[in-house]
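Notebook p. 47: complex prediction with adenosine-5'-triphosphate.
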Amino acid sequence: MRLALDRIGHAFLGRTVLEGCDLLLANGEIVALVGPSGCGKTTLLQIAAGLIDPLRGRVRRDYRRHAMVFQEPRLMPWLTAGENIAYGLASLDLPRRRRREIAGVHARLVGLEPADLDKYPAELSGGMRQRVAVARALAVEPEVVFFDEPFTAVDVGLRRALQDLVMRMAGDGPSGQGFSGLFVTHDLAEAVRLADRLAILSARARGIVEIRAVPGRRAARGDRDVFEIVQSWSREEAFAELVDGEGRHVP
Ligand SMILES: Nc1ncnc2c1ncn2[C@@H]1O[C@H](COP(=O)(O)OP(=O)(O)OP(=O)(O)O)[C@@H](O)[C@H]1O
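Predicted complex, structure tokens below:
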């Protein structure tokens, strides 16, 4: 077990957003938090990551290092791509050359060219900036990664490539050590594609209404499997706030 949420409750300005949320995140596991806009996914993720103190319940963490990937890359504009990727490594007491090597390995993993490493964020496309953000998160070899709709703003091809990378690295990073992931998305197909389990949140119920395992092994799930699971689950009550009866996302 890497992370446990016990009876988490939270409110903003007296309005309850979450009540009685329980969740466990195992070693190497990816759990997707899914639900409609405003149901509290980001709040629960931030509580899990320690960015918000919950009003009720407790978070148990069994890891040393975590990283976060947000919807927007949040790079430092005055650092090059390579320096951004290496930024988190500064606290790890590694020689400068080793930091540069690690940054290079992770830049390659996300599909950046060596020449991109010397560019500043303003000189990169949106997709490249998000690749840098993913490389920066994974370079510190975190045991847990918190993802908050990280691929919503990138185009379809890159989204798939980054999802594949997350799945691969969660099982087995470059040094053989994977991470556990908590992954916020309102895209059911994305959740089914890359998660081991879904925690389904509802705005009405103020929290997690169901935790459900995705059939089959994550790495072995093909496009057809994902399509069929999404089709069949979209008709269920648990997803009513998330997708319409045809499997389309409610805006
Ligand atoms: N800092 C805050 N102050 C006041 N209300 C907040 C704050 N942060 C979130 N909320 C409210 O709490 C509720 C849950 O927000 P949250 O961002 O966790 O939802 P979400 O499921 O991640 O939504 P989305 O999919 O749109 O990002 C929303 O009604 C939101 O307006």
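Notes: The chain has seven helices and nine strands. Residues 82 and 117 are 4 Å apart (CA to CA).
Next step: compare against the earlier run before touching the bench.
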